[in-house]
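SECTION: protein entry
WANTED: fold as tokens:
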Amino acid sequence: MNNMYGLGTYGANSFVDTFFGTSSTRGGSLLSSIGDLQMIQKGAYKKAMKAYVAKQKSSDSAETIKNSGTADSGTKLSGLKSSSQKLYQAANDLKNASYGDNTKAEDLLDKAKNFVSQYNSVLGTTKSMNSYSILQTAVWGTEQMNLSQGLLNKVGITINDDNTLSLDETKFKAANMSDLKALFSGSGSLADRVAQKASTLYNQSTNQIALNQGKSTYTMFGTLTKKNKRIQPCGTDRKDAVCAVRMLKERKRRMHRFFVPEENRTENEIVIHGDDVNHIRNVLRMAKGEKIMVSCGKGVDYECEILAVSDSEISLLIRDEKPAVSELPVEITLFQALPKKDKMELVIQKAVELGAASIVPVKTKRCVVKLDAKKEEKKVTRWRTIAESAAKQSGRGVLPEVTAVKSFSEALSMADEMDYVMIPYELCEGMKESVLSFTEASQIKRGGRIGIFIGPEGGFERGEVEAAVAQGIKPISLGKRILRTETAGLAALSILMFLIEGRNEEE
């Protein structure tokens, strides 16, 4: 059961993230959330502070283990393990449900009721916990809800003062299916994010139970802990405080990132409008004096200090500007044939993380998906939202473009203007030639453009490949295995990113 979800245990964002938050002097957004959220029991922050200080002063491993959260009883931890498992299943049931044209909201009511019930159960369990890592995950879980509060209200789900949820069945039955789909369907949805938090809680409780029983486990600091022994990752003389400083520096490097239009920037100031205002003000709870990273989507990062926060805008003072270090020296465009279901959302999310400059959805002859104008507009809007979210998460300095859906001939016309274009094809033979093609593509000069064509589930028709080759596009192989459409593009992007960034560092 430890690897039931295929997700790792609580990782490198240690107690320092809870403790110090962002690079601000005020201590950061998460601390503010812990102080404000009703689900965190009174005095939890004080307990965490005492635990951390005590750990620096004492070499007594037993005391360290006690302060790290093992004071939570086995009954509490087992209860959390069980409730988080149920929440994970409930969230995935909503995530994987059908949201088609023939689906009615009332068909999803039982799943929604179970989701609300299990979510409230997890909150009730975490409320009495002492472990700061578990409390931190719980706070992050409530923040996911706050991010979707507007849509939740539209479908009859209310966030109460104690952060539990209430479901109005009548309002839910009358909800718009597009709103329900936006909330719960597919990768990146609220249901998906809550499932991930539930998985984290499951792993945290499982590891803490193991630790209480004297078994070895990796802590949030990345150190191997046994009941009577603590092994430091960098040698026995390495203190946790040193690791804490290192992680604090990393946190500073990873300030909260936002994208704004170029017209919102003057010589010394930037103004943020729209949905990001609510996120900064009410979710992150940031205030005057705190720092964030802003990009206008042109490859320049602006380190900014908050000057003022209001209901309608955030005023920022530009403290520093520098070229975005996260961008590839060349632009890579992924021409992705429309896959079935919500696979396109996954492709866009991961393509942005891997450095793609643009994603072009393409209609090919074997595409199963058929979109009318109305559906296409909604899909493209959602895809662009996913791209922006992925760009923020991965620290991009450019906001990748997701174009309108193109025909295969239109995609070929776009590719004709690029410096190097490849088309993975399952019938292509010869890995040596494919390796050479990737190498040649990686040598394109700074500012150049590379294209990658990926077919649908049924692959390209031979005529489409022949048309591409006739235009000078290089057919390549990605190995002797047939990859799924959502895998092939990411594999090609990964290879290119590795080669290009390796060459760039040498230069």
Summary: Residues 334 and 369 are 18 Å apart (CA to CA). The chain has three domains: 15-251, 257-323, 331-506.
